[in-house]
Amino acid sequence: xxxxxxDIFHLSTFLHRPIFDREGDRIGRVQDLVAxxxxxxxxxxxxxxxRIEGRDLFVPIRKIGGLDQGRVTFEGRRVDLRRxxxxxxxxxxxxxxxxxxxxxxxxxxxxxANEIELAQIDGTWEVVGVDPGRRPLLRRLxxxxxxxxxxxxxxxxxxxxxPFVGHVPTARLRIPYRKLAKLHPAQIxxxxxxASHEEGEEIIEAVGxxxxxxxxxxxxxxxxxxxxxxxxxxxxxxxxLLARMEPDSAADLIxxxxxxxxxxxLDLLPSEQQAKVRNLLTYNADTAGGLMSPDFLSVPVTATVxxxxxxxxxxxxxxxxxxxxxxxxxxxxxxxxxxIAALVRARGAELALGVARTDLTHAHPQWDVHQVARTxxxxxxxxxxxxxxxxxxxxxxxxxxxxxxxxxxxxxxREFGMSTVEE
Length: 423
What we know:
By secondary structure, the chain is α+β, with helices and mostly antiparallel strands.
C-alpha cells in the first residue's frame, strides 16, 4: 500500500506557539515535541510538551490538532496536570536534537541539525529529516512563518541519520553498532575526531561491541584522540585494545603513552604481540624499522602455486597484509614476490617462484623515511621488504599506506578541505 504523505513542516514553526482549546481560548504554549526512537526509519511523534501556567505538561499527539494549519489546538476534554517526565526511548526534538550533531550514515559525515523536518504520513506525525543548511539559522533570526512548508529535496532523510543520545537522561538506546560497522574504520575515526569528546565516546562505545573494529578505528585516530580515549581506561583495557592492533600501530601508540604506563601495558600484552612490539620499539620511529610491520606472508622457494594459495587461505593476517606473497630462501632472504592474482592465474603445480618478480630491492631497518619513499617511488612499489644488512634476512615490510601516514601531517583531511562536518 502506498503511504499518503502531507507537506513537510519545520519543527521551529511549532515551538513556542500558543495552543488553544476548543472554544478558542489560549491555554498555554508548545515547548517541544516528543518522538520515540526505535526501529522505525522515521521516529513517530508521540506528543507535545505544553507549558501551562509555568508547568510543563505532556499532551498525547492524538489530542493535538492544527499542526498542519499553523494554529495548534487541544482536542481533548481535559489536560493531565501531572508534570512532564521523560519515558525511556523518548526524545525531545528541540532540546535533544535541534542544533546538535548527527551522523549521516550514507556519507559518513557529521551534520548539524539546524532544523528538524516533520510530516504526516497516513495520519501519523513522523520525524522525516533534518536540514543541515544555513536557511534555518536565518529563520531563527528573522522568526518562523507559521505553517511554513519546505521542499523535500533540501533535507536529509532521517532514515540515513543516527543521532547522539548519550546526553539524553532516559535514553535506553545508543548508536547501533551494526550501522556504524557499514562505514570504513577511517570514516569512523574521522567522525570521532570531528565530534565533541562526549559524542566521540558514544561512537567508541558503539564500535567497542566489535573488538576488531574498535582496534581498526583506534589505528586510524590521530595521536591526540588515541591518548584522549585511553586516558580513562585501565592498563588491562588498554593492553586488550593494543593486542588487537597491528604491531607497528601498537608500538607507535606505546611510545606516546605516559612513561609510567608503558611497561605495565607492555607486560600485559600477549607474548607474541609483546615480542613484536618490543622489537619495533628498538628502532627510531622515522626509520624503515619503525615504519615496518613484522607481519607478512612468505613461502619457501620450494613452494608450489597451490601451496602458496593454501598459505593465503590459512593465514590469519589481515587482508591488507596479503596483497603480496614473498618467496624466501632457506636463510630467510627474499628472492621473489608475487601477487595473489598472479598465483590464481598460474598452474597449481608450478613453483610460486616461477610467477614471482625476482628483481627485488629492499630497505635496511635504519633507512630514513625519505630513503624509503625514494626507493618505493623509483621501483613503483606498494610494499617494500625490510631486511638486515648482515645476512639479508627479511624482518618486515613497509606498505605505501604506512609511508603516507608518516609523510602526511596530522589533521591533513581537515587542512585539505575534507572536514566531516557538513553545514
